[in-house]
Every structure is written in C-alpha cells, then in structure tokens.
Amino acid sequence: MKRILCLLLLATLVTPLSLAQQPKRTKRQKVVSFLVGPWKDWKFMVVMAPLAVGMALDGESTARLQRRRPSAVELNPFLGEHPTPKQISAYMAIVFVGQTYATWGFKTLAYDPARPKDKFQYIYGVYPAAVGALHGDAARKNYNLVTCPSGTFKPPGLPGCVLR
Prior knowledge:
Blueprint: H1 2-20, H2 27-40, H3 42-47, H4 49-68, H5 85-110, H6 126-146, E1 152-153, E2 162-163
C-alpha cells in the first residue's frame, strides 16, 4: 500500500513539472493553428452551416437570374453588372472563407479560459446565422424575379410570364 501511495505522490509531483517544461508556441505555430482551426472543429462548421446555405442559394439564384434574364443588372458592386457563373462562384467562395475566419476570430476572442462555462462565448454563432439570413433573403428576392405563378413560365430573354 505504501508503494502505491508513493507512486501516486511521485506522479502528481512529476506531471506538473513535465507540463511546465513544454516549449512555448512560436508566432508561426499560432498562425498555423489559427488558419487550420476552423476546418478541424466540426461544431464550428455546424454553426457556419446557415451562412454556407444562404450564400449557396444566393449565388445559385444570381446565376440563374443572369441566365434567364440577360438584361438584369447585379447590384453588388464587387461582381459587376453582368457576372458570369465562375465570377459568382469565386466571389462566394472568397467571401465564405473570409466570413469563416472572421467568425473564428470572434470565437477565439470570446472564449475566456478562466470561465469555461460562460455562455457569452457562444455569441459568435449569431453572426453567421444573421449573415446567412441576409443572403437567404437576397436569394428569395432573386427567385421572385425568375419564377412565375402556376400555369405560366418565364422564357429566357423575355420580360414577364407567358401562359403555357
């Protein structure tokens, strides 16, 4: 029994010393950890899902609108008046990656190791949901420009709906 207690005592004394001897992380390691972090955290990616869905719907509806109504003008100044599907896809991908890292930054700033049970650290989830809702609303408006009531269809290049 004394041997077991001695081993436990020795283990408790040695463990903190070995943790304290770990080398400090360099600036490069911190940057790499920040860049890789969002893509390894599956809970974070679930939080980013509304933004991804909203942006995908917005990009698809914009491309569909440009294809069905060539005279339509895109109001986003970063895309130009008549963007191609490749330009729309590239823009949406760049914006999604930027929004992901911005949200990851919010998450790392909101987390306080001294208070791990604090609910404020989850406030970062509001941002992608709100921006995803804005993109979803833009997609809804685009689909309303493209779709017609039942029994009619919108031919490419012609304004308005035509009876079948």
